[in-house]
Amino acid sequence: MKFGVVVFPGSNCDIDCYKVLSNVLKKDVDYVWHDTENIEKYDVIILPGGFSYGDYLRCGAIARFSKIMDSVVKHANKGKLVIGICNGFQILTEVGLLPGALIRNNNLKFICKTVPIRVENNTTPFTLNCEKGQVINIPIAHGEGNYFIDEEGLAQLEKNNQIVFRYCSEEGLIDEKSNPNGSVKNIAGICNKAGNVLGMMPHPERASELLLGNEDGLILFKSIIDYLERGHFE
Amino acid sequence: MNNKPWESVGLTREEYDKILEILGREPNNLELNMYGVMWSEHCSYKNSRALFKHFPTSNERVLQGPGENAGIIDIGDNKAIAMKIESHNHPSAVEPYQGAATGVGGIIRDIFAMGARPIALLNSLRFGEIEDDAHMRYLFSGVVSGIGGYGNCIGIPTVGGEVYFNKCYKGNPLVNAMCIGVIEHDKIHRGTAAGVGNLVMYVGASTGRDGIGGASFASVELTEETAVKKSAVQVGDPFMEKLLLEACLELLDTDYVVGIQDLGAAGLTSACSEMASRGNSGMVIDVSLVPRREEGMLPVEVMISESQERMLLVIKKGAEEKVKKIFDKWGLHSAVIGKVTDDGMLTIMENGKIVGRVPAKSLADEAPKYYREYEKPEYIDKKRALSIDKLKEVNDLNEVLFKMISSTNLCSREWVYNQYDYQVRTNTVITPGSDAAVIRIDETNKAIAATTDCNSRYCYLNPRRGARIAVAEAARNIVVTGGKPLAITDGLNFGNPEKPDRFWQFRESILGISEACRKFNIPVVSGNVSFYNETPENAIYPTPIIGMIGLIDDLDKVMTMEFKEEGDIIVLLGSTKEEIGASEYLKVIHGLELGEVPEIDLDLEKRLQDLCVELIDKKLIKSAHDLSEGGLALALSECLAKSNLGAEISVDTDLREDIYLFSESQSRILVSLDTNNVDKLKELCNRYEIPFTVLGRTIKDKLSIKINGDLVIDVKVEDITDKLRSVLPCIMG
Amino acid sequence: MKAVVYVTLKKGISDPQGNAVKEALDSLGYREVNKVRIGKIIELELEDMDKEEAEIKIKEMCEKLLANTVMEKYSFEILEG
Amino acid sequence: MKAVVYVTLKKGISDPQGNAVKEALDSLGYREVNKVRIGKIIELELEDMDKEEAEIKIKEMCEKLLANTVMEKYSFEILEG
Ligand SMILES: Nc1ncnc2c1ncn2[C@@H]1O[C@H](COP(=O)(O)OP(=O)(O)O)[C@@H](O)[C@H]1O
Ligand SMILES: [Mg+2]
């Protein structure tokens, strides 16, 4: 089982993902430079957070043209796993692997804090260890995490069960007050139709060690590992 | 040439004469400008250097003291910490976002120029009152986004700092940024040019006309005119800097580099002359080889431009292709622009023709040094007088408590630090909102605690004592998180040093810092001076900011401030005196900024800190929090707001109730512990000769305080928490 | 030759930045401003070429990179000279 | 009535965003682009008023809020209707 963490110019949570996988979970993980074309040896590709190409113009807009992205699209189309966290999520929408767009937070500010999110879909490889409706606390850190999708697109997401996480209150209520950035329907993370590509704004890799105050994020990585070990759902 | 050429570059007649003496001829315009920027206060410290001798700057841990891009202090395991603070006050007053952002960019470059990987940022901010001043809110908001904008993008966590508001900063906001990096002992690099024939390389962003005159801009008072004329504003490019950082660290892992320095204030002029001067060598560079982004730039413009995100390297002859390859990989410019010589001269050429030539040392080291006159200002004695009997009695202390919590200086800073990515790189063990931030050091079981502190009202009313307190408080902030204070970087922000009363404040502050540092054996390893923070109306309060780091050698012993469990005992270490002068209470409730500053007994402070270290070491306490502005009442409120618990306090005292609650007596720490450990704590307190008071215990939901049997405070913790957090969001909209 | 590309939010997409500016104008006393929308202006300096060719190229650049048509619309002008 | 304000960086002030877009266009094969500068376009919807009055007001808004003239310049157009 091998993980690849993609490094774009301006990535900065690459190291955080790497540390969780190698130090905490003792898995085999490589950094993969953005101009790499052959990524066949990886089971999971992680597009990490950060500010690829400075996030100039729009977040993820320039990174999505990196050489590696063609291979990432192919990798995804084969049904292999891709997870985009924060900036990675933005890149996935720009490249078209996930629908919608991430726009400026509605308070116009960068927001860094830990928020509760609710697991809406526990049938993806990324959430199979979660209960449906389970609330986990995961940090967010973004200026443009306000998920936008038009009504038609939203209907599709709902119909196909593609909404994976939503921002919620501590008790799990989905309400305006618990929406940190203005996302449509409190959406914090979505997957593609097939369920093998996940994009999320919250950072599970920042919530994977008790020393740092919280290990709620580990459940995602452990789900992926269990999924790969078994090769299928239970 | 006009008949007073020195004026155009901000020098005096005498300084000009000194240049004539050095050169034995008239300088040409390029040369004169180079002296102008290098001999400005900002670059030469001509008004402050004479006093630096008071600082203790070495001990067994100091690997690099002041004088380099950053100071370096050993933390064992072949690892060391680089640290430095820098001001960007004037640019931030004119363009808050970019001014603050480029301030952060500059301080980060100072750290990686030493070969260190930056691991954390802090910032210390001062603004005028924001409640009724839209422009102040604009500055505050812009500065905070600028700091976040740069730090977040480059991926270095901003883990702490401070913000205070006072009308004295209305015309002169302060923006000081501090950066900390980790480095291995054998990888330390310095800004030196040695080895005749070695090459001078320029890397990073191209050079434009922006920021010309920044150093001299920082060395004058801020008036309408200077604000308009000197539009020394630049746009920061954190993405470029991220690439530059990674490329430089990759390069510094090789053995191609002889010296490295960032291009900061006074740009190429400063980097070339300082590197040559440190290496006792000379340097010849050709400005036509410098990558530029504007056409028709004159040599003088290239030499003094302060364009951001650039570095200067001296590399071994023959390594140029290998160096270029590294920068190409990161998509960055690199160009050989000259070489090292042995003639001690800085020679500037343009297309092979000499356009300027002066002794390198004369620029970097031979600026005039002034010992300014000083005189105790008149206000001091007047303002120190305070008669407590005349203070209006207050009756509803619950209301007073809420007023205090609502002060912009005491409320929660969440609005600020939630805009900073304080977690990136997943090493932030204690996040902002506590006494000091704690950052884990990769590959070790150690952590660094970091804080910035300065109460400038104290420094205004009694600079010597205020400065001692700043050091003591910083150290206390470190100690309560489980750290042992290691080193200081100081950011000295003052008014015009040519005025004797301002210089007195400066001198007293330096003496105060030095005394405290010696007592605690904490060396000053780097720092920054920013003078001329005044407008025609007023000068700022003296603001000597203390940036301090401490070492936690076992991650298991990190201590936090919040109460942990119901039924724990709350104890106050230290004693509370009738010390309400200069306090936030006087200002907020009585509208007064006067009185004598609380006393600080450095011996007692040291014993208190040693006691705290031992209590943590022996795992006798569950929480520890420093008392500062707002005194006991605020410290209790802060602990509660973080813990979702309440507290039941009952004490007896001879002091007035309000004074007991809000006194700012120094050398106090609030701790909580298991009932079973109280005896051991008492024993240790006695051993260290530290007075203590058992205040009460933790309960559910509410804060109640009885003084001499009267219930004076009785409030819901939820209300405290909501209030603390809502003040800044409400004001900032 | 030069070209200017205008990228603005599609109708119906909320524009928090525009709203914030509107509020700020309000509090400065400019009550006569009813609505503010903020977009981007991208100035391009290009090698001289045929106007038609330029149009095709710029349209391509907009579709691929300069605008995200999920939420933005674009228009451009080509300035000779 | 409507007005459009254009705010762009002054000459000589570096434009990291523009540079990054230029590089990106380059690597997408658009070598004919020599330079990119990015600014803001601010569309205002205003109460109807005298054109001259509008000009004065908008100029004021630009100076006070919409542009920071230490590094940006602005221009505007008033569109009747
Ligand atoms: N400008 C800032 N940036 C980041 N953190 C800040 C800033 N200002 C205050 N903080 C954080 O808020 C907390 C409280 O600050 P302060 O009131 O100065 O504490 P103390 O009185 O213990 O020194 C600290 O954790 C500090 O790091
Ligand atoms: Mg403080």
TrEMBL record, chain A:
PANTHER family assigned: PHOSPHORIBOSYLFORMYLGLYCINAMIDINE SYNTHASE SUBUNIT PURQ
Name of the molecule in the record: Phosphoribosylformylglycinamidine synthase subunit PurQ
GO molecular function: ATP binding; glutaminase activity; phosphoribosylformylglycinamidine synthase activity
Source organism phylogeny: Bacteria, Bacillati, Bacillota, Tissierellia, Tissierellales
Free-text function comment from the UniProt entry: Part of the phosphoribosylformylglycinamidine synthase complex involved in the purines biosynthetic pathway. Catalyzes the ATP-dependent conversion of formylglycinamide ribonucleotide (FGAR) and glutamine to yield formylglycinamidine ribonucleotide (FGAM) and glutamate. The FGAM synthase complex is composed of three subunits. PurQ produces an ammonia molecule by converting glutamine to glutamate. PurL transfers the ammonia molecule to FGAR to form FGAM in an ATP-dependent manner.
Protein biosynthesis among keywords: no
Gene3D superfamilies: 3.40.50.880
Cellular localisation: Cytoplasm
Catalytic activity: L-glutamine + H2O = L-glutamate + NH4(+); N(2)-formyl-N(1)-(5-phospho-beta-D-ribosyl)glycinamide + L-glutamine + ATP + H2O = 2-formamido-N(1)-(5-O-phospho-beta-D-ribosyl)acetamidine + L-glutamate + ADP + phosphate + H(+)
CDD domains cross-referenced by the UniProt entry: GATase1_FGAR_AT
From TrEMBL, chain B:
UniProt-annotated binding residues for Mg(2+) 1: 86, 528
Ranges of residues in domain Phosphoribosylformylglycinamidine synthase linker: 8-46
Entry-linked Gene3D superfamilies: PurM-like C-terminal domain, PurM-like, N-terminal domain
Main location: cytoplasm
Classification via InterPro entries: PRibForGlyAmidine_synth_PurL, PurL_linker, PurM-like_C_dom, PurM-like_C_sf, PurM-like_N, PurM-like_N_sf
GO CC annotations on file: cytoplasm
Pathway as given in its UniProt record: Purine metabolism; IMP biosynthesis via de novo pathway; 5-amino-1-(5-phospho-D-ribosyl)imidazole from N(2)-formyl-N(1)-(5-phospho-D-ribosyl)glycinamide: step 1/2
Domain PurM-like C-terminal: 196-348, 565-703
Active-site residues annotated for this sequence: 42, 88
Subcellular location: Cytoplasm
Catalysed reactions, as listed in the record: N(2)-formyl-N(1)-(5-phospho-beta-D-ribosyl)glycinamide + L-glutamine + ATP + H2O = 2-formamido-N(1)-(5-O-phospho-beta-D-ribosyl)acetamidine + L-glutamate + ADP + phosphate + H(+)
Domain PurM-like N-terminal: 67-183, 433-552
Mitochondrion recorded as keyword: no
Pfam families associated with the record: AIRS, AIRS_C, FGAR-AT_linker
Swiss-Prot/TrEMBL GO biological process terms: 'de novo' IMP biosynthetic process
Binding site for ATP: 45, 84, 490, 527
Enzyme Commission number(s): 6.3.5.3
Keywords: ATP-binding, Cytoplasm, Ligase, Magnesium, Metal-binding, Nucleotide-binding, Purine biosynthesis
Binding site residues for Mg(2+) 2: 110, 262
Molecular-function GO terms, alphabetical: ATP binding; magnesium ion binding; phosphoribosylformylglycinamidine synthase activity
Superkingdom of the source species: Bacteria
Family from the record: Belongs to the FGAMS family.
Function: Part of the phosphoribosylformylglycinamidine synthase complex involved in the purines biosynthetic pathway. Catalyzes the ATP-dependent conversion of formylglycinamide ribonucleotide (FGAR) and glutamine to yield formylglycinamidine ribonucleotide (FGAM) and glutamate. The FGAM synthase complex is composed of three subunits. PurQ produces an ammonia molecule by converting glutamine to glutamate. PurL transfers the ammonia molecule to FGAR to form FGAM in an ATP-dependent manner.
Subunit structure: Monomer. Part of the FGAM synthase complex composed of 1 PurL, 1 PurQ and 2 PurS subunits.
Protein's name in the database: Phosphoribosylformylglycinamidine synthase subunit PurL
Organism: Caloranaerobacter azorensis DSM 13643
Gene: purL
UniProtKB/TrEMBL annotation, chains C, D:
Pfam families: PurS
Reactions catalysed, as given in the entry: N(2)-formyl-N(1)-(5-phospho-beta-D-ribosyl)glycinamide + L-glutamine + ATP + H2O = 2-formamido-N(1)-(5-O-phospho-beta-D-ribosyl)acetamidine + L-glutamate + ADP + phosphate + H(+)
Major localisation: cytoplasm
Subcellular localization(s) per the UniProt record: Cytoplasm
InterPro entries: PurS, PurS-like_sf
UniProt keyword annotation of ATP-binding present: yes
Cellular compartments per GO CC: cytoplasm
Pathway: Purine metabolism; IMP biosynthesis via de novo pathway; 5-amino-1-(5-phospho-D-ribosyl)imidazole from N(2)-formyl-N(1)-(5-phospho-D-ribosyl)glycinamide: step 1/2
A GO BP annotation: 'de novo' IMP biosynthetic process
Keywords: ATP-binding, Cytoplasm, Ligase, Nucleotide-binding, Purine biosynthesis
Superkingdom of the organism of origin: Bacteria
GO function term, MF aspect, one: phosphoribosylformylglycinamidine synthase activity
EC number: 6.3.5.3
UniProt subunit comment: Part of the FGAM synthase complex composed of 1 PurL, 1 PurQ and 2 PurS subunits.
Family: Belongs to the PurS family.
Function: Part of the phosphoribosylformylglycinamidine synthase complex involved in the purines biosynthetic pathway. Catalyzes the ATP-dependent conversion of formylglycinamide ribonucleotide (FGAR) and glutamine to yield formylglycinamidine ribonucleotide (FGAM) and glutamate. The FGAM synthase complex is composed of three subunits. PurQ produces an ammonia molecule by converting glutamine to glutamate. PurL transfers the ammonia molecule to FGAR to form FGAM in an ATP-dependent manner.
HAMAP family per UniProt: PurS
Protein name: Phosphoribosylformylglycinamidine synthase subunit PurS
Species of origin: Caloranaerobacter azorensis DSM 13643
